[in-house]
Each structure stands twice: as C-alpha cells, then as structure tokens.
What we know:
The chain is α+β, with helices and mostly antiparallel strands. It contains nine helices and 15 strands. The protein has two domains: 7-279, no CATH class; 292-360, no CATH class.
Amino acid sequence: MALPYPEGDVYFKRSALKLPQGEYKYDAEDEKAFYSHILVETVWNTYASGPSTQPSNSSMKPHPRSKLAKGRAGGFYMTTFGVWDSTHVMFGPNSDGSNINRDVVLANNQNYNETRDYDSGGKIKVILRPVPVSSKEDNFMFVDLVQQVRAVYFPLAHKSGPQNEDLCTYVMVDFRLRKGVEIRMPAEDKQVTLPFRYSTGLGYRHHETMCFDVRGIYNYLMIPRQLRNPEKGLYKTAEPGEELITLLDCHQIKISPTVIRLDRHFIRSIDLASVIGDNFGVDVIWSPHQFESWVLKFMEHSVYLGLGLVPEVGPLLAVSWSIGMQAITNPDAFKAENVLHLSADVLQAIVGTAIGANPNVPKGFKSGGGKVF
C-alpha cells in the first residue's frame, strides 16, 4: 500500500469510521457527525513508565491534568507499569493556551495485561479517537502529549466525488513519515527539534502540549500540495509567529472557570488495522468528464447542512480543485462565471472562507479559470 504525503488529503471508507453502540455514538456516515469531529490517531497499549523507560515510576513528575496510574498484569509478571489515566484535548480562542473553554477528556487504557503483552514483544495497537468540535469558534486545539499521537485528521468532505461516494476526505497532519521537524515554542521564543518515530509518532512528551491552529491548518492543507506558498508551513514559516503548530509547556494551559468538560471512556475503537483493511485496494477515481450537476448538489447540500469548523471552500477543493482555486485566487471571476450555477448564499459562503486561504497561494499565482476536474 502506498504511503500518503505527510500533510494533505487522505481518504477513508466512511463505513469503517464508527464507534460500537454505546453511550457516545459516532458514525461517519452521519454527515453532521463527520463534519463535527476531528480524529486523533494514538497508540493505546504502550506505557509511559516501566522497565524500559526513563524516568521511572518513582521519578515521573506530576501532570496538571492527568494522573499516572500504576499497576501490574495478572499471573507471575511482576513488572509495574505506569500509564497516564487520560488525554485532554482542549479548545480555546488564544494560541497561548489561555481561557480554555472546552475540554474533551479521553480516558486511556489501564489494562495492564495489554501493556505486559506489548512489553513482551507484542505489536503496538492503534485507534482513531473522534473528538467533538463545537463550532468555528474553536480556533485553537491543544493536545496533551501523554499518549503517543501518530496523526490528526481534520474532516474536509463527506463524499470524495461522484465515483467515490463511499469515501470521505480528510486533511491529515502526520507525525510518522518524516524524521522530525523544527518546531517553535512561542513562550520561550525558541525553536526545538521534535523527532518523529515511524511506529509511535510523537512518543511520550508528558511535559508538553501541542497547539493546532485549526482554521489556519484548513486554509493551508486544503490547497493542493504543489500550489502551496513555500513561505508558509505548519511548523516553520518565513515570518516568525505564523506557524500553525507549536509546542507549549503543559503548565501554560489555563482552564476557564466556565469550561465545558466532556468525558469519553476508553474503548478499543476505532481500530486502525480494521480501517486499513477496509481501505485496502481502494482507488480514488477522478472522473474525466464534466459532472457539474453532482458538484452543484453536493455543495448546495453541504453548505445548507452546516459544516461546523470546515471552511465552505474546503469541500469544493476536495471534489473540484480547479473551481476551488478560482474561488481563492479570483473570487470576482468565480462569482461572475459561476460555472456550477450555485445559489447566491452558497457563492457568498464559499468566497467568504476562500479569502482566508489566499495567503497560502504563491504571490502572483493566477487560476486558469473554473473547470470541473
């Protein structure tokens, strides 16, 4: 199976993205559920402290939001393992971590038979964890790195095209396929090296919290990779302070007194191995003929449905990048030509969000006009 580019579009079969029936329901077949959840890919059966880690259980420094749970497996396996009891995924209006107004608490695995099996040479186990996002006001997302995060997926389009209606499109930020990056810590005004590991991604960095500029990431990654402005980037930019992903000390996060807290218990789903199995052999087919009517219906339906945190131009770029690029680079021509015959409300919604993506296109770039590819 071919590997994706570390940042950009990826495709899943929607039928594979669902949680089993329980108190918290998530099924990507439901459009509202799809557009209102970010997926965080984590390793769940490893341990933060134990026989092969530093620091040890006894010297692990406390965390302001998570507790180090300690335990042993059954039988004669006498090793004590330490795992962080929960991972906090938080949202707020400021990149410095102040005034956090929503806190999604993801309980972590505390089955020490699983950590024993991993410690004895077993394979790592990976899940995709749906994280609800309330609205476009969730400007910044903060993830405590007390679990080994391998990737984050931001929803883009519920359907990937007229010949791929069973597939959905995400924009992905991957922490495995590079050796690492230089990343900024704004509070200290310094760059640090952040290594990536192919199997475990970011590894355990329990003293740090990663900040994601959600809108900025959409504006950058939904543009086709070859057309992105080389002066922009996720971790390092020509202008300091424009980075979209940064690191904070975990103690820098300040929770609002009126924070909304959502608790999610641990389950072994959505299992990544099953998702990959369902996706194996799937091809994304780009239709060579005109399919304006499909795009028109898809965009009208998507915008009127309400896309939550997703910019309205995003699904258009996902299913017809040439028209989407015209909306970004030449909005007046996009509205005047209106090759899809979109309603005025939908046109305005698309243009309104396309403006934010424009700086991520190279200066002087001109779209060749709106065509459906």
